[in-house]
Predict the structure of non-specific serine/threonine protein kinase.
Amino acid sequence: MEHLSFLLHFLLSLALNHASFATANNDQFLYSGFSSNDLTLDGAATVTPDGVLQLTNGTVHLKGHAFYPTPWQFRKSPNEVVHSFSITFVFGMVPVYSDQCTDGMTFLISPSKDFSGAQTSQYLGLLNKTADGKSSNHIFAVELDSSQNTEFKDINDNHVGININSLTSVKAQPAGFYDDKNGVFNNLFLISRKEMQVWVDYDAENTRISVTMAPLKVAKPLRPLVSDIYNLSTVLQDPSYIGFSASTGPIDSLYCVLGWSLGINRPAPAIDVSKLPRLPRIGTRRQSKVLEIVLPIASGTFIFLVGTAIILLVRRRMKFAELHEDWEDDYGPHRFSYKDLYDATEGFHYKNVLGHGGFGKVYKGVLPVSKLEVAVKRVSHESKQGIKEFIAEIVSIGRLRHRNIVQLLGYCRRRGELLLVYDYMSNGSLDKYLYSDEGKDTLEWFQRFEIIKGVASGLFYLHERWEKVVIHRDIKASNVLLDNEMNGRLGDFGLARLYDHGTDPQTTRVVGTMGYFAPELARTGKATPLTDVYAFGIFIVEVTCGRRPIDNLVEDSSEILIDWVVEHWHRGSLIDTLDRRIQGNYDADEVCLVLKLGLLCAHPFSNARPSMRQVMQYLDGERPLPELMPTNLSYSMLATMHNEGFSQYTSLAFTGGSNAMTSSFSSGR
Ligand SMILES: Nc1ncnc2c1ncn2[C@@H]1O[C@H](COP(=O)(O)OP(=O)(O)O)[C@@H](O)[C@H]1O
Ligand SMILES: *[C@@H]1O[C@H](CO)[C@@H](O)[C@H](O)[C@H]1NC(C)=O
Ligand SMILES: *[C@@H]1O[C@H](CO)[C@@H](O)[C@H](O)[C@H]1NC(C)=O
Ligand SMILES: *[C@@H]1O[C@H](CO)[C@@H](O)[C@H](O)[C@H]1NC(C)=O
């Protein structure tokens, strides 16, 4: 009898606990799957009934953490050095709606479990702007980063890095592993919805940190992916917690952990991958379950063959399916076939990703027949409304031709997705040159001046020289691309219209980017050539000073570039605002001209701003700049005084993420 009840009890506990398999003692632990009392969770982190630790829950701009509940001693006694340790875990990243994830996750060791002050998005729920880089953090982390942030010098949007007290990695490598047999490097794609295993090893004797990763069923590769000498005795405090952090940016993403083990002064216990729970299957566009079950059962080879043939055909049709309506025939020549674009970009392979912006990813491609190099931008759109007008506009914009405008070659339309094909700009976007830290990459003054003049002439063409007035709506350094001769060319125009057309007319959304918004734009919601001139003014000041219009998280007005320049002008030290990386080689008159012109264009009163025609004349020296009195009022103050709507402007421009456009994008789903 007793045996029976014991057996029942055992079976019951087995049934309840099937999800998690955990062992622990004082120098090691092992989890294959989790149950929620195994961990201390906060923020968006949860443990699913299957035993998957989900650090984020698929909502945007959130963070989540999970810690081993009690802290660990990494030293035997306070005066000793940090022991060797080794950690391994199995993780997976799951895009929810799209094929992207932002921003990333970390494994971390920290003296505290309280991460309430940490920020989301690019801060990965690990740190915040003020705390980043401080040695008082005592944090060691390994980042698995699925977004590229230039402020942290990220190498790409698919990398693994070793981080000490900062989001800027001391060492980072694109995700992947070295084959043990032939030493060949294999790329891994973090957001592939596949489970992957990571090993973090610290060798106390040589103070070497090694991070290795591999697909789930591949044994630990011999050669680590990232390795660095760093004495963790100077970083870690005792006792310290170990755990994970993750955060989402503007795109719904799930960051999951399936198994985890630690060994101090010994290897981490091996995770038995057959015991792990499965990654959540959301957002996958799979064939229906019925097919998966019926097909193996269907015994006749005939049925099987016919079935397979049909599936293949349907799949192929679905894979390359496009949307096409009669009215589009007028635009015949501008339409690309999806298959051509698919082939051009090698199936939208991630190695061809040039970058991603608010609207989606941009891929490099080579068109099959012409061998022309192109950039293909994938824009997802949900609504049908207004798409006709939008495409009509895109196509008419495709007829624009100017040497300072990125040529739109055509488009392709599929369900829920629009593909735009542009000329490929071999030198990428301007912001990368402005904010790269290595002096070698920075632009000389004469190059900057040429780019400014080029962009002015492109914008002048859009505003005044074409058959109708085209408003760009999103002028900024990252939308200025450089061709092989380093000419500045405006890209991305017209795209902002997609929001105006595609969304509910009752919610007027102002599209643009924080820092480039004209004050009246937020009040009226109406983009005009003069709001473009405003953004252009900010842009040229930015290019001259080599500083972003607003540093993230403004707390103090000196972080507003334009106010800082106005202040220097008032004090008669305008030239001091020139980017320090430009050494000696500049014409002070030109610099002052551009700065004053920038201030004139970015004037809070729209009627004080010049037209682009006048801007061209000032830049070419055909006309002297009108005398503006230096003011001791900051532009922000002037705007406030002028404009009741200013409070609305600030609240609007600073909601959510780092740019108003992406935050309106994600909430528009
Ligand atoms: N025509 C192009 N040629 C080369 N690179 C491009 C082109 N268009 C975009 N890119 C790259 O893709 C990145 C993202 O572009 P985009 O989506 O326009 O950014 P954003 O939305 O921030 O303006 C750019 O920073 C640039 O590096
Ligand atoms: C995600 O987590 C946040 C914060 O804990 C919560 O407010 C939100 O409701 C969660 N969303 C879902 C879909 O569970
Ligand atoms: C930044 O993080 C630190 C450490 O977690 C915290 O003390 C501080 O309050 C945070 N700052 C902000 C502005 O949230
Ligand atoms: C690491 O740092 C600790 C504490 O500063 C020091 O005692 C130790 O000698 C260092 N180890 C090495 C290998 O430099």
The pocket of 2-acetamido-2-deoxy-beta-D-glucopyranose (ligand 3) is lined by residues 117, 128, 130-131 (CB under 6 Å). The longest strand covers residues 253-264. The chain has a mean pLDDT of 81. The longest helix spans residues 445-465.
